[in-house]
User: Fold these one by one.
Assistant:
Number 1:
Amino acid sequence: MDALTASMALLRLEGLGPARYWQLLDHFGSPDRALLQLPQAMLSKLPVRAQSQWREFCRLGAQSELLEWVQGERARCVQRGVQLVCHSDSDYPPLLMEISRPPPLLYLRGPRAILALPQIAIVGARRATSAGLDNARSFAMELARSGFAITSGLALGVDAAAHRGALRGTGATIAVLGSGVDCIYPRQNRALADEILAAGGAILSELPLESGAEAKNFPRRNRIISGLSMGVLLVEAALRSGSLITARLALEQNREVFAIPGSIHNPMARGCHHLIREGATLVETSGDVVGQLGGLLAEPSATEPAPAILLDDRQRRLLLAMQGGPRSIEQLAGETGEGPGELMALLLQMELEGLLEPLPGGYQLTVRGAACCCEGEGVAS
């Protein structure tokens, strides 16, 4: 039995969530061994239906209700264009893997490469002020143009404004749901979800297909939003709000946390002010965020020679498009024919290899990147 099948079967057992899943994995080392040898002490703590499902699996194996559901779910994913990303996959988001009890399994609509992009979460109030919505859109647009993917929860208010800002900046954006990826919530944002996917963005959830939006799902969703991201930007929030919880989760996960201050007479600014008093960075422009997070991106050592790089056709085409000087992301998309998600993943890869560097709204060649353009074989030395 492969790891994905075993993981899906374990998570299908009612009452066996990520916490118990990781306890089992720590003990048994693999999900298939954990499924086959589920300890009686843990089984007795699960609901009666889960106990019955597991015992039937032990008797019937592939013909059990449990494994038939897994095979059916995998088939539905294929039919609906949904990819399954297991924690054992090499492209599982590394930052998310660092948090306590990360989701063992992710359901993804959109390109898998987008999960490798450096992400900034932008969150805030559903009933934000017009100024708050403007801030969310403008910060998201500028950060997207600086090379960051914008991650949020597709909620009304600040979340939706952040996604739209990223789209306006022709950058990548990821919507993390508290429902199945095929059950867009709220309904008012279904058109926005379609726009995100059409632009090369992604819809993500840890919940099975056809899962509805329930209150208990949103704290789990929030830990994914912060866990995927290098930092979280709080735009507006009341003192008791899900957005403030997301920001606090980010602090617990050792992520950078930023907050936009507001008027002392605006109740939607109180959450930001509270967070700033707790140590969040006060920001007034997107440059404040980029300045603090940009240094976290890997760069080649200045004291060691960079290893040789063999360029593929896509990389070479991108570098040639930049020979004339800095290019905006819109220009690069037009000149290379790359889709938004694929382009952002390619730009990140080449930035990490020291071939180009981000500018506000675009990119330019580094000395090393320019040297690559001059190499007949496309090899930097």
Note: Confidence is low (pLDDT under 50) at residues 298-306, 376-381.
Number 2:
Amino acid sequence: MNKRHESTGPTDEQQITLRGPAELADALPYLMGFYPNDSVVMVALHGGRGRFGGRLRLGIPRSEQEWPHVAEQLAECLVKGSERRGEHPDAIVIFLCQDPGEGETPGQAMERLRPLAQRLRTACGALDVPVLEALCISAGRYWSYCCPDARCCPTDGNVLSLPGTSVMAAAATYAGIQVRGSLREMEARLAPLKTQAVAEQPQALDSAGAALVPRILDEEGRKEVARETLALARVMMKRLREAPATASSAADSRDDSLISHDEAAAVILGLQDRDTRDKAAEWMEGAEAQSALRLWRALSRRCVGPYEEHAAAPLTLAGWVSWSTGDEPGARVALGLALRVDPDYTFAQLLHQACNQGLDPEALRRCLRSEGSGHTGKDHRPEHGARLRAARPSAGRGKRTQSGSVRPGTAIARRRAREPRAHGRGGNRGGR
């Protein structure tokens, strides 16, 4: 077996040494904070002992034609990001995590992904960073793409340790580090609901759009809509906060039951205005942060049918609050979903990049505190970085009804929200 010695520490005081592919595979959920599935994970190593550094995750592209380009992008992103933090990686570890498809065995899934592993190794090598290990994890088994010895790395793979029994699990438990479940489970908490209970949500969004769009197109009306949106959101947050406690497995369903279709529609559409969304981003700490996070998750789940792209705003807010309160894995998942529904959503792009680079969210918190500290009647802009933008999918990319027509009200609202402001820094063409 190819022996690897990578050390990582759940705390600064405690370090453990991982030896070989088995311990690396067992450590992955603790490195990420969840069990990644359908994912490429790359981790930078530093120093002679292979101290873990920056890491990134991306969903495995379905089209193999995308693999060469994606491999180059991932390698460059990890290496350049590490260099911006002051350390060029000495090596990289790669994980490909994907369960078998229909009619496929785990071994066949591993072989199908082998070209992607090779592309990633080549891309890292082109940047003068060797890949010390490349692992495939599928259906509870792991394979090394780097070890040619069938005696320790058989063709049918090795079985992963039972959850919670590895050396990394023991160290993480001691340090208070938790694994939040699988990536699929975390994404499901933010995905559009598919129950009969939300069958009327698109109609409520249609009605809210018809009522709100004419007001949003008027400057004074837009300000009134903003005030109403934020006031209603606060009412809903208070309702969620005061609801009786329930089991964590039923918490999301309970939150969904406390929000009506009309309430959800009004706030979802109101958040499509960037200034309204920026004011809502101020609920990022203290007692209101958790109720705000629950609200943004619930609203993300209500963006159903032709309104799925509207989820970019509440998903980004959920990611921001998660990051601000120290939940980086949860932030990355929410922000990744926001960029999945709207890849051009600038606020999500900026937050996702900053979170992945390990930046401190306090700088943005100070900026938002300043904007919310009573400067009424003026358009105060952050003094550093890019202005937070509200996202609107363009009318050309809008979701369509079954008849194939773009919903006219929301298309107008999106265009209005993208228009550059005539004051302050003038906005940009993206308006996001």
Note: Residues 1-13, 375-431 have pLDDT under 50 and may be disordered.
